[in-house]
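Entry type: protein chain
Record version: 2
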Amino acid sequence: MPLTLRRMVDPAEHADQVVARVTAAARTWEARFHGRLLLSIEVSEPYDTIAPCPTEDGRVEDVRTTVADVTVTLADVVDANGGWQILGGLQAHHGIKAETGQPGPVTAFGAATLSEHGQHAGTCVHCGRRRRRTTTYLLRHRDDGTIKPVGSTCVADYTGGAVTAHLWETFGRGRRAIEDEFDDAIRAARAAAAFELVEVVAAAVADVRDRGRYHSRAAEEWGKLPTTDAARMILTRRRKDPHLPTITTADLGQAEEIIRWMREDYQPPAGDQFAENTAAVYRSRFVDADRGFGLAVAGVAIYRREQDRRARAEREARAEHLRYLGTVGERLRDLTGEVRMVWRDENHWGDTTLLIIAVDTPDGPAVIKWSASKYVPVDTGDTVTLTGTVKNHEEYRGERQTILTRCRITPATEPTTKAA
């Protein structure tokens, strides 16, 4: 069945980019369709409309803008096979018929509907065999509306061999992929003009939280995705990507704090043009998607460096009061403290999490370091309770650290610290 999608592109000059992305997505699937995919794209003449637009002073005004409509039509050979159309597939689970929804609309065609037509679940009316089938396909004649459940091997007999059950499912996956790409392209076109500053900063914060550190452009040399690119992907991809984090309320809160700090407290070094440009970007509510996006993300790195500098100064001030915990080999239990740093890495051998935790004991403050060969679901600022074995005592940049191994970590309930 033909699928028609119509979207408005704002601004109109991005219509060619949208068409290029949809065409490329269709070309990717064309080989799997054996040339049976019919794709047509129409772009309307540009026309004027009223749309909200950010101004340089951070306000939003309704302004006249030029847009264009892009219409994408997808069709396949399902509609041209002796009058029979494949409506959808039904999967059988323990004798119960459930709709699969692949690839198109399959509604109100359960076991009761089949019974109304004198059919039974799991029966192929073509070969007459009734058995537990993984999938039964529903065919309907477009002239008289007759509905028939047919097994996958018998579908080709109704379609003249032009469409097999497997090819029909491939049509469905391709249609959904092209539709998703179309929507992503439209969203990217609309976002091409400007983003809200808080959204850009929050996306960068989410990436840093997810991967444990800020990745500069130089990270590409080691096969890592720069935080700037990750933030752009988070904001422009409509589909959920398991490799991309979701912006949380905490991320937005930290983004607002970074923006406040950049506007009120940050003083760019004299003669540092990059720092001055970054500070200028933070004075506006909106960020230019091309020129200002990277600078907005860089503000997160500047903020983190300043926080690290202050934390280092505080550590140096109290380093002389830090003590080591336990003796090597001793099992320490219920050490409660605040997570001061989280560093994560993912490579061919799995996940690694490095934690620095500050604890207070009756004898004075201490710092715990634990390197885990797994993903540990904690964030900087969390209060946790830790049980582990003392592996070593080390000094890092003048700070005494107790190295633990074989640890068990849980959210803290009470701020108590004791050793076994």
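Comment: Residues 92-113, 413-420 have pLDDT under 50 and may be disordered.
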